[in-house]
Amino acid sequence: MAYRIAVLPGDGIGTEVVPQAIRVLDKIAEKYGHQFEYNQGLIGGAAIDATGHPLPEETLGLCYNSDAVLLGAIGGPKWDNLPTHLRPEVGALLPLRKELGLYANIRPCRMYSALADASTLKKEVLEGTDMVVIRELTGGMYFGPKGRETVDGVERAWDTMLYSTPEIERIVRLAFEAARKRTRKEVCSVDKANVLEASRLWRETAIRVAADYPDVTLTHMYVDNAAMQLVRNPRQFDVVVTENTFGDILTDQASMLSASLGMLPSASIGGNVALYEPAHGSAPDIAGQKKANPLATILSTAMMLEYSFNLVTEARAIEDAVEKVLSKGFRTGDIMEAGKTLVNTEEMTDRVLEELA
Ligand code: IPM
Ligand code: MN
After folding, report:
1. Pfam families, per this entry (predicted)?
2. Helix (H) / strand (E) containing 132
């Protein structure tokens, strides 16, 4: 089959890891007889520099006309002080998610046994961790009413955590469906219902939706407690569902269960065209030094093959190849430990390609 993939490398290490993921896709195409057609688009700072806008119409059009989107990362110090609507994060990534209707961000987080000692967390705590966080992606404080004003000489600013029942219902449903496909069939809904009104609606809605899924167990947890439980005993989680901001924060934290943010892939789904991107950012501090870990992006393409193209065998092949490379001791800087072999971005991909061959 032929698939059209919009490729948006973006900024910083995004431009280094995306070409590596494409090498992996090319290998899959060759091995399993598929055709991937790549069309590059500009986004973020790169788009500002070239066109004056972080999300050009052309890029959006390209995404609409593709079967899936592969995104690297966006942003950097050069564009941090632009007016809000032009900043890469708020001017490009958020509208892209909204325009494409990607209300669900899926971030699987598991412990790789080869990386048990690479994490800052104890091996005994991590052992057996295999969870997925489902983050609501087009609502909450990111998109609610916001503003800034000066009253009596005092400046103030606000962002509003706004959720409607249909928005909560669809994401919670998606979490229940995901849990159904897993062994434990457990959903933990994370909120702050002891304080926030939006969380009270969230919890009521989750309880109502749960009635349609008698085979799935629903529990609730306050977000502060969830942050603590993630490092105290991550094994307790199966599927976690939460609102946008909580999910943003908790998934950075959860990435350490896989030893590094450089290991965490993500899929943003819900619309006609899904978007795949590593959970990490553009990492200006290491950009251009060939140090970036390409595995989060490579694993994101595995999610693309599975979720968008239903190529499950191919997806598993990539994931297995990554595991083998790690167990052979190859490491980028972020997961490096004594006694292992340090490789750069491209060499790490070379190793993955070898395993796929
Ligand atoms: C993420 C990122 C983005 C977010 C930023 C870059 C806008 O941190 O995908 O987690 O906050 O959603
Ligand atoms: Mn984030």
Report:
1. Iso_dh
2. strand 130-136
